[in-house]
């Protein structure tokens, strides 16, 4: 397969490049060249997608079997690229987000849930949900049923820029007592970026289009399994101190940002880990065990370090030391 990856140096884009090369595909990447070169073995092209002339010149008149795109900013940029490629590409895979659904996410909802408004011509990137939805509309307009809209949930694994799983790994690696948000058996949904990329490449080969919530089945893992995998991967002398969600709420801890990945089992955030993802699984999505994702993420962090995020506003804050010690003291009675 001749594959064009718009991006290719971070997370899902990087994973897609590596997976495609391993399969023997011919890979072209298009980046700004500001995050270092993509993997060896690709044809690297450079342009700022916000510059229509530069984009057109970089793409030339070549054709590809498929495109994979992770863009999450101005929808108008996606529209411009889609119009250039519509007659030269057979399949377009877009990493969208479950953020396009109207808030709050309803537990048990699937792809039929209501979505936010989006404008495919918008040049505003300030509203992440609206930007992703606008990009979806732009691609549907140019590619119709040839586009795969992979509405990813929580994406973790090696090459993660946001830093949610790295926060837990680095905190647990420091050892000592660690606030563990209860209940321990709280189900979690996520997708390893490598599994998402591999599935999207499979969909490109089979010409599978449509809208899919691309995240693990509910209960693929639990908070306890994730955190114990972090302890095992780091080899740290860390002790997990389980704190009920009510006690965390009393300290102003809501989850997701201050305790990355985890959300309380009730309230507006609950639906983040309770999506009906049967459609993606019926279309072939498979998620590896949490222990593998965690161990590989720790190995990557040790080898390369956490990259500088292009989207610092999305990075988790994590518990500060004073708040953590206050919660631990309360947990001890």
Q: Strands of the biggest beta sheet: in what spatial order?
A: 3-2-1-4-5-6-11
- String of helices and strands: EHEEHEHEHEEHEEEHEEHEHHHH
Number of helices: 11
Shape label: globular
Strand content: 15-25%
List low-confidence stretches: none
Computed CA radius of gyration, to the nearest angstrom: 20 Å
Mean pLDDT rating = 95
In CATH, the homologous superfamily of the largest domain goes by the name NAD(P)-binding Rossmann-like Domain
In total, the number of domains comes to 2
CATH class of the largest domain: Alpha Beta
Category from helices, strands and their pairing: alpha/beta
Ordered list of secondary-structure elements with their pairings:
Layout: E1 2-6, H1 11-22, E2 26-31, E3 43-46, H2 52-59, E4 64-69, H3 75-85, E5 89-97, H4 128-143, E6 147-152, E7 155-156, H5 164-173, E8 176-181, E9 187-188, E10 191-192, H6 193-206, E11 210-214, E12 221-222, H7 223-234, E13 238-243, H8 245-250, H9 278-282, H10 290-304, H11 321-332
Parallel strand pairs: 1-2, 1-4, 2-3, 4-5, 5-6, 6-11, 7-10, 8-13
Antiparallel strand pairs: 9-12
């Amino acid at each position: 397969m001749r594959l064009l990856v718009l991006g290719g140096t971070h997370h899902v884009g990087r994973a897609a490049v590596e997976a495609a090369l391993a399969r023997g595909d011919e890979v072209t990447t298009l980046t700004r060249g500001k995050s270092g070169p993509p993997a060896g073995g690709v044809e690297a092209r450079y342009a700022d997608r916000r510059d229509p002339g530069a984009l057109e010149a970089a793409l030339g008149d070549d054709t590809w079997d498929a495109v994979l795109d992770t863009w999450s900013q101005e929808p108008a940029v996606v529209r411009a690229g889609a119009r250039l490629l519509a007659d030269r590409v057979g399949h377009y895979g877009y990493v969208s987000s479950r953020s396009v659904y109207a808030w709050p996410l309803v537990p048990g909802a699937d792809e039929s849930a209501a979505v936010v408004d989006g404008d495919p011509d918008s040049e505003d990137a300030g509203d992440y949900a609206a930007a992703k939805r606008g990009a979806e509309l732009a691609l549907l307009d140019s590619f119709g049923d040839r586009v795969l809209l992979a509405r990813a949930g929580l994406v973790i694994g090696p090459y993660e820029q946001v830093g949610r799983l790295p926060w837990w790994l680095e905190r647990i690696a420091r050892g000592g007592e660690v606030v563990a948000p209860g209940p321990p058996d709280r189900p979690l949904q996520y997708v390893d970026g490598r599994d998402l990329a591999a599935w999207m490449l499979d969909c490109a080969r089979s010409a599978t289009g449509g809208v899919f919530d691309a995240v693990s089945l509910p209960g693929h893992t639990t908070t306890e399994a994730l955190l114990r995998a972090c302890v095992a991967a780091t080899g740290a002398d860390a002790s997990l101190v389980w704190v009920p969600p009510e006690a965390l709420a009393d300290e102003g801890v809501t989850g997701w940002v201050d305790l990355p990945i985890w959300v309380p089992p009730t309230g507006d955030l609950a639906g983040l880990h309770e999506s009906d993802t049967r459609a993606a699984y019926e279309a072939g999505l498979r998620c590896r065990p949490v222990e593998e994702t965690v161990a590989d993420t720790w190995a990557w962090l040790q080898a390369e370090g956490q990259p500088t995020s292009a989207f610092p506003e999305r990075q988790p804050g994590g518990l500060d030391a004073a708040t953590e010690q206050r919660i631990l003291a309360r947990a001890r009675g």
